[in-house]
Model the fold of this input.
Amino acid sequence: MRTLLMADIHGNFAALRAILSTPEAQSCGRVISLGDQVNFGPESRKVVETLRSLGATMLMGNHEERLLHPDDFAGYNWAMLRVTARQLSGISLADLPVDVRIGSALLTHGTPGDPYHLVYPPDLPEVLKALPEDVNLLISGHNHLCWDVTSGHRRAFNPGSAGLNETGTGARAMFAIWDGDELTPCSTPYDVTENARAYLSGGFAQEAPEMSRMCLQEMETRQYQGVLRLIRHVSHVARHADNRNAALSRRSCDGCDGIAHASFSFRAQKSAVEMLSLIHI
Done:
């Protein structure tokens, strides 16, 4: 069946809506989202509700897994996650599968069985080698880059991030069409200013201004790992700060996609109005 593949929408409803309006997406009879439907972007609830209305298969990403226990993330650095948790009140994500098998293809968020495992193209031959014998195609997300790598008789494909694309081309949502043996990467433009307004109206700009600004910048510029660079910098500052709030979190994410501390010392210095002066609306 001709299938629309998306990964890492990250609460970016403007990007999702743009994808669904394309002729490529409208020609598909099935929709699969490879995890991280939520967080970072300001409209996670709209994303989840829209995907469910389409009967989409949604996988468990690391951000959905965190939202199963948001109280574990009490520090100021996790403010965005907590706003997202409130926005998703009444919606359960606990039943999302970690992996899905479709014929000889295995679909997952990070690597099979582990939505937190972040890999890069040089890692893929070993990942493919470890797959079950009857699997010859691995479709995954988590890393926001698009790839199509073959090693031996096996293939690894990542459609790239729909909501936080990191290819260097700003304001474009990545997706792919899967039809038989064909996997075709696609992209479409969307209006980032919709997200700026949603960060304000949803409370993100007020409670998590630093991360909101950084996410918007990444949406606009598609800077590679822009958000992760901020996270790693803050994590480094927290580790070396002479501050009791720099204690390690019980659930660190190995420095890959979450701040590995329960909290850190700096506090929001810019108001929502000041935040708006840094973005184009």
Summary: Strands lie at 3-6, 30-33, 57-58, 99-102, 105-108, 137-139, 146-151, 154-159, 172-179, 182-189. The mean pLDDT is 84. The chain has eleven helices and ten strands.
